[in-house]
Amino acid sequence: LGMPPSRNRDMAIENVLEGWAQVDPRGALAWAANLPGGVRAGALSTALGNLALQDPQAALDYLNGLTNPADRNALIGVVASNWGKVDPAAALAWVDANTTGQAHDSAMLNLMGQLSQTDPAKAASLLDHLPVQMQNMAISEIANNWAAQDFKSAMSWVQGQAGDVPRVQMKNLE
Asked: pLDDT, tens digit, for every residue of 65-77?
């Protein structure tokens, strides 16, 4: 980190870390944990996300070892989303059983967003796992991802939703 702090330095770190985390997420994670300030959060997210893809239990162990609740809560969604790419059912079960409050809602929203890219109907079936105020965000993301795959099914699903958000979403899809 001999470069002076700058956006260019941070981007260089992120780019190097992304490649490193794909082949050695544990090493990248250990290095990222020692980075300064603002670049640390992004680096931890990248490394832990890659670890969750390769070894979800190791990612969970890392989360459980964090002593700062804010760090843990910020990274739960990263683990859920990336774990959801390889085993959405297990990720969903873990989030429901092991998180509460805002950490739960954020992790569920991240997981549903990821799932909506590959199985929007399944993501839609999970809406009741979120509080009503967050369901609107999820509906929007699910509708957008679903429409990219199957416009007619997405439109049908949106029309079946209650409230103002689906009407706005239908206009966005048209």
From this structure: 999 888 888 899 9
The 3-state secondary structure of 55-82, one letter per residue: CHHHHHHHHHHCCCHHHHHHHHHHHHHH
* Cα dihedral 104, 105, 108, 114 sign: negative
Cα separation values, 5 from 10, 13, 29, 33, 89, Å: 7, 11, 20, 17, 41
Q: What is the pLDDT of residues 143-172, one digit of tens each?
A: 999 999 999 999 888 888 766 555 445 555
Separation between Cα atoms, residue 9 and residue 5, nearest integer Å: 6
Q: Cα separation of 95 and 106, whole Å?
A: 10
Give the amino acid at 15: N
CA 110, 115, 121, 126 torsion-angle sign: negative
In whole angstroms, give the CA distance from residue 25 to residue 143: 33
